[in-house]
Amino acid sequence: MTDIRQLPEAFLEEMKGLLGEEYQLYRESFKEPWKPGLRVNTQKLSPKELKALVPWKLEPVPWTDNGFYYEPGSACSQPDSPALESDARPSKHPCYYAGLYYLQEASAMTPAAMLPVEPGDMVLDVCAAPGGKSTELAAKLKGEGMLVSNDISYSRARALLKNLELTGAGNICVTSEEPGKLAKIWPLFFDKILVDAPCSGEGMFRRDEDMIKDWEEHGPSYYAPIQREILRQAVSMLKPGGMLLYSTCTFSRMEDEENIEFLLSEYPEMELVPLKLSRVPGGVDGVGLPGCIRLFPHKVRGEGHFLALLRKKGAFRNGAGKARTEAIECADTVNDRKPSEGTLVREALEREECLLRRGKKGGRFLGEAAGKSRKIAPDLKKLPELAAFLDSCAVCWEEARLSVVQDQVYYLPRGLEQGLPLRFLRTGLLLGELKKGRFEPSQALAMALKKGEYPNVLNLPEGDERVLRYLKGETISLQREEGTRKDWCLVTYCGYSLGWAKGNGMTLKNKYYPGWRWQ
Hints:
- The chain is an alpha+beta fold.
- A hairpin with a 2-residue loop joins strand 11 (284-286) and strand 12 (289-295).
- Helix 8 runs parallel beside helix 10 (220-237) and helix 12 packs antiparallel against helix 13.
- The relative contact order is 0.11.
- The protein is built from 16 helices and 23 strands.
- Strands 5, 6, 7, 8, 9, 10, 11, 12, 13 and 16 form a ten-stranded mixed beta sheet that branches. Strands 19-21-22-23-20 form a five-stranded mixed beta sheet. Strands 2-3-1-4 form a four-stranded antiparallel beta sheet.
């Protein structure tokens, strides 16, 4: 915990003016420990199902159905259970390695909870690393539509990719670009956009004293222009009718309400969608701008946060009947204000016309539902091992969405054009790699497969000492009643995927991804 005496006097004076009579309560909140939390990955299981698998006491976070506070060290002691020797540490539990939850501070759960993402949406998370918000957005999509998760830092984007793949998200693109480049590629493209902007971090002072040093070097006046430029680019990528959620973890009005006021004055096509305070018990209205939500650590069980939801006026309809008049009017408005942005909008409309003229191209199915006959697409006959593997899965693979790049096999999200000039870390689900005609499935595919979707499985129950041995990368021996295993075997914990092993009779050669191993 941070000692409040470490906080800069200039910041404390600002907070005194902002909070008035509540300022002393804010100061006293620094005497209280921050409350850690976890969010259930609903792509894989329900909160009720997770509670039955983990040993900690979980208390609901009031503003999201799948978020919980947990008490460090509250796990029941299980000395005879080597596989769960770190029960008191959620980052070491097998359920974490199965991607069943994400460790996240409670207030940080609010942005993804407040953005109304629906299955099938095209969604952009502009400043996505390390992935807490993106993993929840992916869960909301339920495998439909596409999530583009971007971070300008390549190293941070790599951590983002790991977290998305750990949760089993497949309909994703992970990029590392500045937002302006994304705007040139995807104008008027996204239904929902999350801008959890880089900020001065005032709301995190209680939890992370390093944020204080950053504030002294780069305060609100440094971040506000950056935030406005990101918002400009985000607006140009948002479809008419689309929604944008702006959030920060700072208290500065310059970075919060003033940025929203700027956006509303600069872009008349944008309107504020009031957020209901009842959705966040303890949250308060924006300062001088009702409809936004502020979270203060002396009023909620969480750290400081700011949220504002905006909508672009107008609407696109699906298919050939899109509301193009409204889009053209939007293009004219932007063109009058900024020629470069107007050009981007018109290019998007021209591309849309081209797609409508060509018509939709639907992919053939490589497989049907489990138990039914499957057809292997002709071009896969040149890759029999890949074709056989895909055919063994109870998954409806669409031929048009398969892509092979430098022997890497990907399953692309619907709506993603190939060959875009962006720095991608991932396009869709990495299925695996071709090695001299042989196919080796990926860790990402293992995490994406659900119960019943792969036939050759070794399920390790709670308390089995082989769970920890597998996660450490060791060879696994089979018990007599488990029979023999050949070829690729999916290792699961309580029915949830951990990774691959290669069967060799009564032993399994460990193929768990080295970079993810239990340390």
